[in-house]
Design goal:
The complex is a heterodimer of chains A (about 220) and B (about 100). Chain A is mostly helical and about 220 residues long. Helices cover about 75% and strands about 0% of the residues of chain A. In chain A, helix 1 packs antiparallel against helix 7 (about 105-115) and helix 3 (about 35-45) packs antiparallel against helix 8. The longest helix of chain A has about 35 residues, at about 120-155. Chain B is mostly helical. Chain B has two domains: about 1-30; about 30-100, no CATH class. Helix content of chain B is about 80%, strand content about 5%. In chain B, strand 1 and strand 2 (about 60) form a beta hairpin. Chain B starts with a helix and ends with a helix. The chains are: A mainly alpha (about 220), B mainly alpha (about 100). Chains A and B meet through helix 3, helix 4, helix 5, helix 6 and helix 9 of A and helix 1, helix 3, strand 2, helix 4 and helix 5 of B. Chain B: It holds the Pfam family AzlD. Chain B: Keywords: Membrane, Transmembrane, Transmembrane helix. Chain B: InterPro entries: Brnchd-chn_aa_trnsp_AzlD (IPR008407). Chain A: It is a multi-pass membrane protein.
Chain lengths: ~220, ~100
């Protein structure tokens, strides 16, 4: 056995474990929003894309309809499709393997894979699969732990769970605020969502902010 | 079937469909600059809206309560480059303290 762990393996495992641990926050958020432990676990197993999962439980938790929840989550899931476009020529898989590759195509597996570019195609593939499977494993284990833990606690507000959920969203959002246009968009979207809450049905104030993103995407010539 | 099950099943089906088409369509279909830019902006807009709605509204009212304090603490923690678990835990702790003792 080699004593030297390759940088690809090291990157994949450290990302898998850190990101997987966020699953605790998701499991807790799901319970706080009224989902059962089984439903939280199914979201992590089947949906398996963090931001969309948080969005579903967030919108339902805020009193939104299933349609609002699914629409918000799906808008957030579009980026995985674009990651698939990047990964397909690198992975070169067909049939059943392509189905599996699609399911583990998320921010982290794509990110680790693309960051191995200097090490060659084999390292990029290894990074994708190791990170994809690694995050899948830990994310699901920690979701179960978070859901069971939150269920045992009872009243979400007494334990700060109702604040932990927006804090978790903010943690997901933070690394994306690295441009001034992104920061302006963030503030405008937050203001629009709050301002329209008294007049629109629950869930819609969140979805309509996608219009701001689309507007900015069409208008702005360069990032 | 209640809205919890509908949202679990529909979200999962659409999420997989979106991942799978990316692996299956020709690259040029999805590589338009407007699509790429919008794709960067959509998570920013939706996540910001979710943070705002969950921190400053309850049902259809705008309110300022213990959750806003929790969010403020999370913001400070992120500014100080705290790791994710510290951000979430400090927000929960601050909010719970306010909720239980004031």
């Amino acid at each position: 056995m080699s004593k030297v762990v390759s940088p690809t393996v090291r990157d994949s495992l450290s990302v898998s474990l850190t990101v997987g641990a966020y699953g605790i926050a998701f499991g807790a958020a799901g319970i706080a929003s009224g989902f059962s432990v089984l439903q939280c676990c199914l979201l992590s197993l089947l949906t398996f894309t963090g931001a969309s999962q948080f969005a579903v439980v967030g919108v339902i938790g805020a009193g939104g309809s299933a349609i609002s929840a699914v629409a918000t989550a799906s808008l957030l899931g579009i980026r995985n499709g674009l990651y698939g476009v990047l990964m397909a020529p690198i992975l070169h898989v067909r049939g059943f393997k392509r189905l599996i590759a699609a399911q583990v195509t998320i921010d982290e597996s794509t990110g680790v894979s693309l960051s191995q570019e200097k090490l060659g195609l084999a390292a990029m593939r290894q990074g994708f699969w190791l990170t994809g499977f690694g995050v899948f494993l830990f994310w699901n284990i920690f979701t179960l732990a978070g859901a069971l833990g939150a269920q045992a606690l009872g009243n979400p507000a007494a334990w700060g769970l109702d604040a932990a959920v927006p804090a978790a969203f903010l943690g997901l959002l933070w690394p994306r605020l690295d441009t001034s246009s992104g920061r302006i968009l963030s503030v405008c979207a937050a203001a629009l969502a709050i301002a329209t809450t008294p007049i629109l049905p629950a869930g819609l104030p969140i979805i309509i902010t996608a219009g701001l993103a689309l507007g900015l995407g069409v208008m702005k010539k360069s990032i | 079937m209640n809205k919890f099950w509908v949202s679990v099943i529909a979200t999962s089906a659409i999420a997989f469909f979106l991942k799978f088409i990316g692996h299956s369509v020709p690259e040029k279909w999805l590589s338009h600059p407007i699509i790429k830019r919008t794709n960067l902006y959509i998570p920013i807009a939706l996540l910001s809206a979710l943070v705002a709605v969950q921190s400053f509204t309850h049902e259809s009212r705008i309110i300022l309560d213990h959750r806003a304090a929790g969010l403020g603490i999370a913001l400070i923690a992120l500014t100080l480059k705290a790791p994710f678990p510290v951000v979430v835990l400090s927000a929960a702790l601050g909010s719970a303290t306010l909720y239980n003792f004031f």
